[in-house]
Amino acid sequence: MNNKTKATWMLAAALSLMLTACGNERAAEPPAPTESPKPAETPKPAESKKSSASTGDSSVVPAPPATSVNSESAKDAKAEKDTKEAKETKETKAAKDKPNPSEPADKQSQPSGATGAVNDNGKTGASGPKNPAAAVTGGKTKEPSAAGTGDRKALSWYYMKKPKGQVPNFPAETKSYTKDMKALWVGTGKKVYLTIDTGGPLGDIDTLVKSLKDNKVKANFFIAGYNVKKNPDFIRTLVADGHLIANHTMTHTDMNTQTDEQVRKEIEDYEKLYKDVTGKDIQPYFRFPYGRYNMHLLKMVSDMGYTSVFWSTAMRDWEPRKNGAEDPYNDIMNNLHDGNIILMHQGSPENIQALDKIVKAVKKAGYEFALLSDIEPPK
Ligand SMILES: [Zn+2]
Predict the structure, then answer these.
(1) Whether the Cβ atoms of residue 176 and residue 295 lie closer than 8 Å to each other
(2) What is the mean pLDDT of residues 14-41?
(3) Residues 319, 59: contact at Cβ < 8 Å?
(4) Rounded mean pLDDT of the chain?
(5) CA–CA separation, 91 and 85 (whole Å)
(6) How far is the CA of 5 from the centre of ligand 1 (A)?
(7) Is the pLDDT reported for residue 170 higher than 90?
(8) Is residue 38 part of a domain?
(9) Which domain holds residue 80?
(10) Same domain assignment for residues 280 and 231
């Protein structure tokens, strides 16, 4: 990169670190998994940052960290793949042992990808990912390269937060989405779409279900298939309570690291599993694990009948929150806007502790909780 670019990038990185330090949120899903290949991600954040810098926004919400994160889940998933059954137990156990909060964070051990600098990783050591090397090392040659090129260039979702009450800015690539790439990241009107991501630990299910029920709130769940297998009764309860459940892949792996055939299988296996467990067809919404995708996959998923759902609020909820349940509450209330699609990880204890209070406050602010199916489908 030339000096100017470099300078811009560094500025962005510095800005983001600052933001991180201040506890600003990021918007992305946690880092990705890893094991595999790719890390890649990279520099994208720069872009975002740049924009934000130019915009004066102080809050950029960078892309997801790259990697690591979910390792737990990714790992689990992988294990799953390898050993189907035995693993279940193991997974559970692992999850238990590690009190990690969110999806991502879990296992530190996991390598991760490093992504970009910017993201957050760094600091959170705990969560930490960061090992770019890992990625590299991975050498496993999987076909798709993590970074990708052309319409397979790896992208990570992020948004740039604006002053309270205003709809954030979104990545420039959204302007390149075509009609055959159905996607949603924000709705309109005084509605809020709570999307709960269960790519990691299931956490305190009872409190979660009760908080929604007590407040008559319907939410949208993106639950990885391995978690559906782990607790099918939970999924049946959600269906009975009127929540929307959508496809989040079987293993919660970064789809950029998979072949088309593998991606298709992740999605179709989920459809079958969901049907087996609930007797119903899965809702036609999909979320890319970690918000990591590419234009080619966006189109492919759309061709399979799905609308990809990103978000306009996310939190660093895959790691312990400094101020406990106050953090998710403030993160959400300080970025509340029309059509807000909120990403909340179920595995974060603080999220669940704060849920009742959040839901009440959002309603008090004049918003109604709605299902993704209430959003007019993209044309
Ligand atoms: Zn997820």
Answers:
(1) yes
(2) 39
(3) no
(4) 73
(5) 10
(6) 32
(7) yes
(8) no
(9) 72-91+104-130
(10) yes
The strand pairing partners of 344, in sequence order, are 196
Q: Based on the fold, state whether residues 225 and 318 are members of the same structural domain.
A: yes
Q: 74 vs 33, 136, 193, 203, CA distance in Å?
A: 6, 17, 26, 17
CA of 254 to the centre of ligand 1 (A): 10
Q: From the CB of residue 240, how many other CB atoms can be counted at a distance below 10 Å?
A: 9
Q: How far is the CA of 362 from the centre of ligand 1 (A)?
A: 23
Give the C-alpha separation, 369 to 336, whole Å: 12
pLDDT in tens, 29-76: 555 543 333 333 333 333 333 333 333 333 445 444 433 334 344 444
Same domain, 182 and 80: no
- Rounded to the nearest whole angstrom, what is the distance from the C-alpha of residue 220 to the centroid of ligand 1? 13
Please count the other Cβ atoms lying within 10 Å of the Cβ belonging to residue 211.
21
What span, in angstroms and rounded, lies between the C-alpha atoms of 189 and 360?
Answer: 18
Distance 2 CA to ligand 1 centre (A): 36
For ligand 1, the distance from its centroid to the CA atom of residue 7, given in whole angstroms, is: 33
